[in-house]
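A.,

Following up on our hallway conversation. C-alpha cells first:
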C-alpha cells in the first residue's frame, strides 16, 4: 500500500461552509467507491487557505495512474492551485473502527503463524495490545481485545 499526501494553497479564501460543500461534492461524486482507493481525508484551513489530502491506495501504480497530468490540470482549474504530491510506502495501518493494527509485509514473503491475508498482503496480527505503552489516563485504559 502507499499513502499519498497532496498539499496546496488556494488563491481564493473560502468559508468553512463553502469548502465543506466543495469537498463533500468531490467525496460523493469522485472518490466514493473508487477502485484501488482505500481511504481519503480532506483537510483545509480556512484561515490560511492551505489544503491537504491524504490518500491510502492499494499500490503505488494505482496512485500514480490517478495523479496524472490530467488530474493536475483539472485540479488547477477547479482550485486555482498547483498541488505538491508525495508518495510514502505504508508500513503500518491502524483502523480503530475495525479494531485492528496491521503491519504490512511485502507480498510473497513467508508469514508468521499468527498472520492473515488481506488485499494480497500478509498482515501480522498481534496477539494483544499492551495498554501500558499507550499514553492515556489509567481510567481510560481498556482491556485489550483479542483479534480473531
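Then the amino acids I'd put at each of the 148 positions:
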Amino acid at each position: 500500500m502507499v499513502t499519498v499526501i497532496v498539499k496546496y494553497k488556494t488563491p481564493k479564501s473560502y468559508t468553512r461552509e463553502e469548502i465543506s460543500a466543495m469537498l463533500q461534492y468531490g467525496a460523493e461524486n469522485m472518490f466514493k467507491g473508487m477502485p484501488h482507493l482505500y481511504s481519503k481525508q480532506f483537510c483545509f484551513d480556512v484561515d490560511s487557505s492551505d489544503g491537504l489530502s491524504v490518500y491510502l491506495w492499494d499500490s503505488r501504480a494505482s496512485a500514480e495512474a490517478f495523479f496524472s497530468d490530467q488530474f493536475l490540470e483539472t485540479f488547477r482549474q477547479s482550485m486555482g492551485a498547483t498541488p505538491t504530491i508525495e508518495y510514502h510506502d505504508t508500513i503500518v495501518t491502524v483502523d480503530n473502527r475495525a479494531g485492528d493494527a496491521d503491519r504490512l509485509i511485502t507480498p510473497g514473503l513467508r508469514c508468521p503463524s499468527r498472520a492473515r491475508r488481506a488485499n494480497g498482503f500478509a498482515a501480522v496480527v498481534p496477539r494483544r495490545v499492551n495498554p501500558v505503552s499507550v499514553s492515556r489516563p489509567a481510567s481510560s485504559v481498556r482491556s485489550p481485545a483479542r483479534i480473531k
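Helices lie at 16-31, 60-66, 69-79. Curious whether your intuition agrees with the design.

B.
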